[in-house]
Design goal:
This protein has helices at 24-33, 35-46, 99-111, 177-181, 184-192, 196-203, 207-221, 223-297, and strands spanning 3-6, 9-12, 56-58, 77-81, 85-92, 126-132, 144-150, 157-168. It is of the alpha/beta class.
């Protein structure tokens, strides 16, 4: 494994990554450990220049390397940008099918922080950004989408203080010219990278990504942090297995429902045929009875004929 030298520091240039870059614990540790990386990512996501970002402070840091449970691990990274705006960043690997509600909850919770005695106009803008390793709306795939409160008739902006953005890591090929100009596609490729060769190529063009590479290398060499990242990988595998099991059970249940429906349809069809046959027999019986009565009135017997 060769090393790439940058600012008197090294990181590998070949070989597989010890921990995938889609690991949300590694994502959190990376942004918490290296503020330049945090600023670089925010600049691309919010279409800002480096000069426009003076401070980016994570207000809900975790103690890196400390064990956690699913209930205690804080997934979103809350950032105060220039002491003016609140940003929630979250990398989500597994589709829990609740991102819309989850992101709205984070957004509203962060917005509703006005202290007593303050004017409503003092509320800070809040931006919720999800980096998703799946497509939120499969019918309308988009690499980077932004949503705001708009008038449903003429699309007038209601307020610029609430915004939700979604970066789809699975559709980098849909990146627009603007996305590429802002190097959002490079950041997405970084988080999807599985080898140091891929990261090295990206690091040649982006200084913040170079710093990210160095920081990730250092983080994954720290045993306690690496163990927590590996624990998250185990969690992902368990969740994927559970989703597969549920999908299989659902599929089998739907198959049984379809089979039962088909049997019920057949039973109903047979019942309808039997009813039709019974009606025909009754009609014939009635006809024979009428014929018998007619013959009897003439002194004849149907049995003698």
């Amino acid at each position: 494994m060769t090393q790439f030298e940058f600012s008197h520091q090294t990181f590998p240039t070949s070989g597989p990554l010890v921990i995938p870059m889609t690991n949300d614990y590694l994502f959190r540790a990376l942004l918490q450990r290296n503020n330049a990386v945090l600023k670089g990512l925010i600049c691309s996501l919010l279409h800002l220049t480096a000069e426009e970002v003076s401070t980016a402070e994570i207000t809900n840091p975790i103690e890196l390397g400390t064990s956690f449970t699913d209930k205690t691990f804080i997934l979103d990274v809350k950032v105060h940008l220039n002491n003016l705006a609140i940003i929630n960043l979250e990398l989500q690997v597994i589709n829990q099918h609740n991102w819309v509600e989850r992101s709205l909850s984070y957004l509203c919770r962060s917005f509703d922080t006005l202290q007593a005695g303050k004017d409503y106009r003092d509320t800070r803008p809040v931006i919720q950004i999800g980096l998703l390793n799946y497509t939120l709306f499969p019918a309308h795939p988009e690499f980077y989408a932004t949503y705001q409160l708009l008038n449903v008739k003429d699309y007038t902006l209601y307020s610029d203080k609430l915004r939700l953005s979604v970066l789809d890591l699975t559709h980098i090929e849909l990146a627009s010219k603007q996305d590429k100009a802002l190097q959002l596609d490079c950041w997405a490729k970084l988080f999807k990278a599985t080898t140091w060769e891929e990261i090295n190529m990206l690091a040649q063009e982006n200084e913040a990504i170079r710093e990210a590479a160095e920081t990730v290398y250092q983080l994954t060499r720290e045993e306690r942090i690496r163990m927590e990242c590996e624990a998250r990988e185990d969690y992902y595998r368990t969740q994927r297995d559970l989703q597969k099991f549920i999908a299989q059970q659902t599929s089998e249940k739907e198959s049984l429902i379809q089979e039962n429906k088909a049997l019920l349809d057949q039973r109903n069809a047979l019942a309808n045929e039997n009813n039709a046959l019974a009606d025909e027999i009754k009609a014939l019986t009635d006809k024979l009875n009428r014929l018998q009565k007619s013959l009897e009135s003439q002194g004849l017997n149907l049995a003698d004929m």
